[in-house]
Structure formats: structure tokens, C-alpha cells
Amino acid sequence: MLPRSALSACLLACAAATLVTGCDDDGDTAPLPSSSAVPAQPASPKARVRFKGDRVLANDLSRDLGLEPTAICNELGSHPCTSEVHKVTLGGVDAYDRQIYVPLGTTAPTTPLAAERVVLSACLERAKRDFAAPDSALLFGGLVLDGPKLVDVHGEAASAAIDRVYVALLARHATPGEISAVAESYASIEASGDPTPAATWAALSCFAVGTSVEFLFY
Amino acid sequence: MKNLLSRRNVLQAFGGALGAATLSQTARSEDQKPAFLIVLGAAGGASMIDAFLAIRASESANASTLNTFPDASVVSIPESPLRSVDTSDTSIGPIPFGYSTSQSAFLKKHYQDMLVATLTGTSVNHTVAQERARTGNGAWLGRTLEECVANHFGAASALPNVNMATGGFAARGLDASLPLWAFGAPVAAPALWPFGLDGARGIKGAPDLELVSQARSLRDKKLEPGTSFMRAFGDGEALALWKQQRTDAVTKLEGSNLIEKLNLLPDTAATPLSQYGLASSPDAATLAATFTNLGTDELEAQAALAYLLIKNRVSASVTIAPSFSVLLGGGGILNPPLAFDFSHTANRATQAIMWSRILGVADKLIGLLKSAPLDPSGSESLWDRTLIYVATDFGRSKTRPADSTDFGSGHDLDNGVLLLSPMVKGNRILGGVNPDTGLTHGFDLTTGVPDPGRTTSEAEIFSGILDAMGVDTTGAGLPAVTAFRG
Predict the structure, then answer these.
(1) Is the pTM value of this prediction over 0.80?
(2) Four-way CATH pick for B34-191+295-469: 2.40.50, 3.40.1000, 3.40.720, 3.30.420
(3) Closest residue of B to A40, CA-based?
(4) Does B192 sit within 8 Å of A182, measured CB to CB?
């Protein structure tokens, strides 16, 4: 018989795992859901979702992309995006400096662009770090490269990288259709003459997923 | 800030600005000239008897205990019924900073565009009173003046209504039937806010904009539509609004290069714009020369941005206001703690300093707007079509300890408002003040003739401003006020 404390710990661990991944009857973690593997999602009758807001957005990007909070986004390199420049636009308050005590009730006309800036900055930083140190890469390791170019974007390595982006940001696996769509986007990037098409593709793949409503709303 | 999102709001947002113009029953006709509203919030309670309705001691039977001034401090000019106060002292109550202010310089320069109307408010709570100063105490379904002006004049603008203020000066109106774009877009940090008007420019290492555009397209057309999340929540109002805002933001904001057109910052080591592929607004140097405290005084930054928003036709209405935070500069206090509300401690000094601050910003804005043509014909300036409404919470109590020049004041419903515009009948006082009590009386709403038998309501001020600007108020049920009209 397990001591009471050990039993509690086990239950807590299972509960925590359930929140993230789901938990099967045996207490083992189940695979992350893939959209193709679950029945079609019915429309929610209320469809109430909320924008993440400044703090959750910053925290999620920091955790999901493995970045220090200070590395996510800084305007002109020195003005923090989520805690200063775009804080109120992203749904935050600024009680001490500007006497803004209540967050916006809805997203503002400028919120989408502010959110895109934050996510793009964070994704660029993640891609930059991963390509600088592929062996310790968080998302974009293992890619087969020919100089700055990606070799076989439809291959296993690229598909796995795309899936890691989905798992990191959305806590679910990418569907085959999503993997294919993201992979296909590489061709136009390379054709554009971008000097580092693989890294750009990586950052923009992250950007496309990270600015989707599935990531930005809950 | 209250925000109400109705199904109708979302439907109207779908139409975009141009489409929504057809939904709005009050949109301006094609042959009506544009007009611009600047609400300059005199936060904390700007007292009109400490400015343009000042009372000379020799005029009052209660001069010793009423907030009157030595005759020499009240400056009139022969051309105008308006008055002004020039005063100085060695301290601001307990704060050992001297000051010397002159309202008369402003009066001499702008009297022809100045209209002072008396007002008796309905609240002495700061937030509530500020809000009522903008809604006429709910005169038109709870709409703010800014929303009315944006709805009428701003349908084709990128951000018809921009609000940089706080508290009741930033509160959203209550009429959920207005299109969403008519409500104020918030700006907290005016100098840095323009960075948020582009999704990618100015980010070091950002890909070519065309590639960013392709990534957006990938997201919008291929990745999002088939997800379980979209199937579950895609029909919800928040996401419908978001998708419309996302589209509008790219076309109207990013597509207009507002990240540079509205950028007040200089390209310096501290703000290295060029290192990030950006440039200052073409007007940045002029604005820096005009607003010399631009980098440290957020009210000046707000005013500079207000000018750029109007000049670039981004907005029809802009709201600015000083904060309640103390600001030092130039060897003195630029903004006392609590702004006008430091009058609780030192009425005379606070009113003098804050009025000087408000009028100084207004003067600079007027100068800039006068120098900018309304259209290529050059026959009119932007100033010819702009109205600055110096809105405030309420007045201050009228009495003082006998002969004191350093006294505190409380909140008082009785006051007046200052309007600055060529669109109003300027060089005029509507109503009057009793020199023995400091209390105001009203005026005939059509002729403007003083009427000691009545007082002026918030709704009447609200209506008079909209009338002067040419906003169609048909069906609003507002009191008919044509006395402001120029």
C-alpha cells in the first residue's frame, strides 16, 4: 500500500498530465491529440473565447519557445513589448504610470498587429538560436540543410520540426494537412531570394501557428 | 474602460469602414468638409473663475472670502469680453517651487477662436464627471462626443477615434449600436505606440514583408479554417471581431505606413530607428522643435501624435489629457501631483500652472494645425476645421479664508468650458458669473444672450459642440443649441 503522501503525489501528477495531454485508465500519458484522429468538432453554442492578453501571451511564448521573458520582443532592442510598449493594446493595465486600471473589454483595432510583432520577434529568436546550435535546438533541430537551404522540406526531419512547433504552441500534433501546407510554404521563400530560406521558413512557420486564433485565444 | 461587444457591432465591423458608412445613419454627406475634434482633458477640475471668468476684487462684495484676484492680476484686452489671469508665486502650497504664468498671452493670440460657455455639472466624482463631460451626461444614448464625431466624419479613416487619456476621459460610450470603429482606439505610450501599427517592420531580422504576407495567408487560408478550434469557436463574436480587425489592420494601418508617418522618435543612439529599418515621421523635427519636452512630457507626446493623426487623416477625433503623476522640468513643476486636483492643497498655484500647461499645449497644436492645409487647394488650414474642447471634471469651490492667496479648494458643480475653434462663434462668453458668489448663470441656447434665470447643462454643451461641428444629430433628442455655431 502506498503511503498517503505518495498516493497524493501520484494523483496530482496524473491530474497535471491530464490537463496537458490527457490520461488513460492506467495512469499513463496518452499521445497528444491529432485533429485527424478525433471526430469532427461540433460548433460551440456559446463560442466564448478570450484573447490571451499581455501576460499570458508573454508567459506562453516564453515557455513554449524556451525563451527568457526578456528575449521575446523588445522594440528598438530596449523597450519590452508585452510589459511596456504594447501592454495596454494587448489587454493589460498600467496602473502606476498611466492610471489605466481596467483592461480593454475587447481586442482593439491595433491588437492584431501588436500580437504579430510579439510572436514574430519570439519566433525569429527561436529560429536564430536553433540554427546557431542545431544540436541543442528546441524546435528546428535535425533539419537537413544545404548551406542556408533546406533539403527535402517534405521529408521526415522537416515534418517533425513542424510537428514540434504545433506541440509547443498548441499542445497538439499537427495534422498531415497542416504539415503539408507548412512544408509547401518553403518553396516560395527559397524562390524569393531570401539569403537564409531555411531559417526564415522556420521562423515564419512558427509565426503562422503562433498568430493563429488557436494560440492567441482560449 | 467599459467595452460592450454586441452582435450588431460585429456585423458592422464586417462591413469595414467604408461599408459601415452606409450603415451609419449620421455619416457626413460627400459635400460636407471634414472636421476634427480634439478633446483636451483638463484632468482634476479646471476652474473657469481661475481663468477666463476671473473676478476682480473690486467687483465683488465678498472679495475677501471669495476666490477673487487683485485687479492687476486679471488682464483684459479691449477687443474681448474674455479675461485672463497672470500670476506668480514662490511656492505651490507646501511645494517649494516658484512659478510665473500668463494666460493673457494666450488670450491675446487666440481670443477670436475662443468661446467660454458656463456649465453646471452633475457630479463631483472625477471619473463620473469626466465621462459626463464627454457624453453630455448620457444625452445621446450614452455616446461620447468623440464617438459621435468619429461616426459622422471618420468612416473612411484608418482609426477614426484615438484616445490617449485615462479614467473618465477614456471611458467608452454606451451606445452599442455604433459601428465598432467609432469607439476609441487606446494609446498608452504615444511615442512608442506607432510600432504596433505594423506586424513586422522594425523587427531586426524580420523577413521580407511579402514573405510575412504569405505566412499570414498560409495561416488564414490553410491552417486555421480546418482546425477543431475554429469549428468550435469560429462563429463566436470575439473571433469574428478579431478576423475583421486582423484584415483591417493590415490594409489600413500597415498599408498606410503609419509606423513611420506617426513616429515621433528621432533617429539617435537611444532610439536607433535606422538600425531597425525605420525612419521618423517627416514632421518629427518640427514637432520636436514645437514640443520641446516631447521626450519627457507625455502630454506633449500625446499632442504631437494628435497632430500627426489629424494631419495624416488617420483620425477624426483624438483625446489627450495630462496624467495625475507629478512631472518636473525646466527647474520647476510642469505637472503637479494630481494635475488640477492639487487645488485641494494649493488652488491658486495649481490652477495657474495647470491652465498654463493646457493652454500651452493648445497653443502649439493650433499653430501646427494652422500651418497645415486642409486640402491641396490651400484655401483652408486644418485648424479651420478643428475644434479643441477643453473638457474638465468640474469647477472648484468658490470661497477662501479671508484674503488668503494660498488656499485649498473642493469640487464644485458650477464651472464653465473652453472651446477653441474657428468653427465656433469666438471671442465670446455664453452666460456669465455673479461676482458676489462666483456662481455662473446660463444663456439663451439660440441667441446666446445671458440668462440669469437658468444654468447650462452638460447635455446643452454636448449638443452645442456637435452643432458647431456640423454633426447630424437628427433623432437624437438633444436640446437645440445653436449659440455656439460660428
Answers:
(1) yes
(2) 3.40.720
(3) B228
(4) no
